[in-house]
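Hi F.,

I've been meaning to write this up properly since the lab meeting, where we talked about keeping a consistent format for the predictions we share between groups. The idea is simple: the sequence comes first, exactly as it goes in, then the structure tokens exactly as they come out, then a line or two of notes. No screenshots and no reformatting. I'm using this chain as the first example so we have something concrete to point to.
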Amino acid sequence: MKRNSVVILLGLLVIFGFNPLSALASSDEANVITTEDGKKVGIGKPKIKSVKSNLRAGNSKKNDLEYQEVINGNDLKHIITVDPSSTNVTVEIPFEFENEEYVVLTQDEEGKNNGSGNIYNKNNESIGVVSTQIIEDQENLNLDATIKNDNVLELDIETDNLQPIEIELFASATYYSTYFSSGSWITRSSDYPISLSLKHKPYLTGASNAVAADARMNDAWAKNPWNLEPGRPNLSYSKTVTAGCNPK
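Output, unedited:
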């Protein structure tokens, strides 16, 4: 097919409403979740980074990776099994963004990243979460994570026993309904102004580890609006804490 014909064909596809990114869900490269503002985020296949390995003496096998994926609406889960041939192996998981989105990982108390964090839009608002965990902990196994070029999650695995390692990656485009089941205006007593009472879902506090929990909390607070008690005065943080979060 000549180049001009290809250009014409692509133009007709756009005119009739075909979005090339939407095809990611059925491609071999990535699956797509849709954010609350209608943007699509693609999560590609995990693969082992091609690096020089630290092979043990007499070990001729190659690093091997298998994975299963489960898609449920705007949630995506990768169950990754790594059969390492070396004491250090790096797994890469690419993200595909269409409008300047990016991923930031959350640090634990030691300043390390275990692969949990937030997906942000170009306005620096959290629109989703990512979490990673080792399904079955093993001795002498460490997992650290980094983000390369804002869109590639690298999981650095260090192990001694070279046994298969199973990792679960969870990525979700979150909505208001992800965190809250209902909301209603109430008056607790004559001493308090009208309040918006929100009932949260177990998802908000049900993360598997503290780093993943922080990512969900950051994401939940990014959902608008948060006019819980609009009659409250706008005071400083210290005064709000002193008043038990109920300033008058």
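Notes:
DSSP finds four helices and 14 strands in the chain.
Residues 25-181+199-221 form one domain.

If this format works for you, I'll send the rest the same way.

G.
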